[in-house]
Amino acid sequence: MLAMQWQGPGQALRQVRLPIPVCGAEEVLLRVLACGVCRTDLHIVDAELPPHRLPVVPGHEIVGELVQAGAHVERFKVGQRVGVPWLGGTCGHCPYCSAARENLCDQPVFTGYDRDGGYAQYALADARYCLAIPDRYDAAHAAPLLCAGLIGYRAYVMAGAGRRLGLYGFGAAAHLLAQVALAHGREVYAFTRPGDLRTQRFALSLGVAWAGDSDTDAPVPLDAAIIFAPHGALVPAALAACAKGGTVVCAGIHMSDIPAFPYALLWQERCLRSVANLTRADGAAFLAVAARLPLRTVVTTFPLLEANRALAALRDGAIDGAAVLMPVL
Q1: What are the Cα distances from residue 244, in Å, to 130, 222, 223, 262?
Q2: How far apart, in Å, are the Cα atoms of 78 and each of 28, 64, 251?
Q3: Which of 223, 107, 87 lies closest to 154 in space, CA to CA?
Q4: Element (H, E) at 28
Q5: Distance CA 65, CA 78 (A)
């Protein structure tokens, strides 16, 4: 099979031919139909996250057709569409797993980081961590749901039920969560890179109440804010934008250093927290929402062999919504 493989820091992805993997007892083999390009992939290939496995095939927003199932797999059938998220496995017995907090597992396995992912024509996954895809989405438009949607939804729940929600960084995750929040009757305020009028117009087209530069004051006090952009300087800005009792959620796996800020920004019961990974329960909850709501997943597709170009476009902020790789078989 063809795959785009990362071989180490300072290197672009390389086109390689690999053997089609063989299923273990709990695994499924998928013919990849689409694979989203996530900012976490960018953090991996830009070496902002420490390498876990080299070489590795990135990609953890996989939509595939099941072509082979291991002997112990009962949840999915050959021919079914299956989704593979970032969390690809856990130990099942550490204190976090035992407390239903598998997203914090001491020995996690991450798709496209610890095991090969979906930048390939075929992918192997542990069936116990896979998800069923809502029928209303084709493969390309379902792919962003599997991380941008899942992690974003976990952050959204942690942000609480306040009416006014700020989203800092309006990419793949924010464009989906804005729609969920609007469907729940909330006001959404979108903060983008300074001067990024294209993305601000995109946010407004989805129905947000306001869109503007991240270095300007919010037009109203926010009840909560979610930071998707990997810039630590946004943390004090988001705290300053929140009303008393507000919550700021840092939703990324990587962020630049947070600058010092006065205690007054945190005082009056403001809360600052992070989100780490996801649980299978998160996946089921969000995909149930996605099955009910007609989410408009805005995607730009790239052929598999143009994965480096897709990553560059994401790095440059040149994409509205999400980038998705489409393998050719």
Answers
A1: 40, 9, 8, 15
A2: 9, 11, 35
A3: 87
A4: strand 27-37
A5: 8
Query: Terminal CA-to-CA distance of the chain, rounded, Å?
Result: 9
Cis omega (within 30 of 0) for bond into 55: yes
What six digits make up the tokens of 277?
């990974």
pTM of the model: 0.94
How far is 149 from 63, CA to CA, in rounded Å? 14
Tens of pLDDT, residues 208-244: 999 999 999 999 999 999 999 999 999 999 999 999 9
Helix, strand, or coil (residue 3)? strand
CA distance 104 to 40: 17
**Euclidean distance between CA atoms 43 and 113, whole angstroms:** 11
- DSSP alpha helices (H): ranges in 56-171? 95-98, 139-142, 148-158
In sequence order, what are the residues at sequence separation of 6 or more whose Cβ sits closer than 8 angstroms to the Cβ of residue 3? 15, 16, 17, 18, 57, 116, 119, 120, 121
Q: Does residue 329 carry a pLDDT above 90?
A: no
Report the alpha-carbon distance of residue 267 to residue 212 in Å, rounded: 26
